[in-house]
Amino acid sequence: MIAKLIHSRYLIWVLLAVPAIPFIDEFISPSRYYPEMMQRSGVLSVQLLVFSLSITPITLVLKPYDWGRVISRWLLAKRKYFGLAAAAYAAIHTIFYLRFIAWDIELAWLEALDWPFGTGWIAMILFILLAVFSNSWGVKTLGKAWKPIQRFSYIIAIASLSHWLLLDFFIDDALYWIVPLTVAKLIHIAFRVYPLFAKATDKLV
Question: What is the pTM of this model?
Fold first, then answer.
């Protein structure tokens, strides 16, 4: 029963949706400071995105251990949900922004032409693209093109973090997430480029 619950997609959906409660409350009864809502929703989106991109490197490190393989299978099975949650919180972030400018599409367009806001829109558009095709229909429709499109997630990460840094908004927090993403990617590259490195980790068991 417990094992079934742990592997339930509904449980992960609920857990990933819990942080959205204060945002929904804010939509219904606006009362909070605008920068606070923007910061919280944006940071949460980046955190989930960085974690989803770190799952493959994490599984490569855990692979030599029996307990690590169990965790790895769970992470790989749930990776899609972390990515979709990142897209959902990015959408909430965008809605807060549009509400702040009174849904002025012309103003949004003009601000999108500047890099600080433009990078944010690039990330949001690619998030939508990935979300639309992150299902069995998308895989079947795109065929072999599905895998390259999934790699847009790295472009999203770069655009999102650039958006954060260019806005000069809580930069220290941004650096906290740039470092783990960089380390995770370097680990991934190490396992791909240097087979001896991967074999060496197998001997650690």
Answer: 0.87
Q: Who contacts 164 (Cβ-Cβ below 8 Å, separation ≥6)?
A: 42, 46, 170, 171, 173, 174
Contact 204, 61 (CB under 8 A): no
- 7-57 tens-digit pLDDT: 788 889 999 999 999 999 988 888 777 888 898 999 999 999 999 999 989
Residue with tokens 């740039």: 178
Counting Cβ atoms within 10 Å, is residue 19 exposed (0-12), middle (13-18) or buried (19+)? middle
Number of H helices, E strands in the chain: 12, 0
Buried b / exposed e over 135-154, threshold 16 CB at 10 Å, is eeebeeeeeeeeeeebebbe
DSSP-derived letter for residue 30 is -
- Among residues 188, 40, 42, the alpha carbon closest in space to that of 123 is found at 42
What does the DSSP 8-state code read for residue 143?
Answer: G
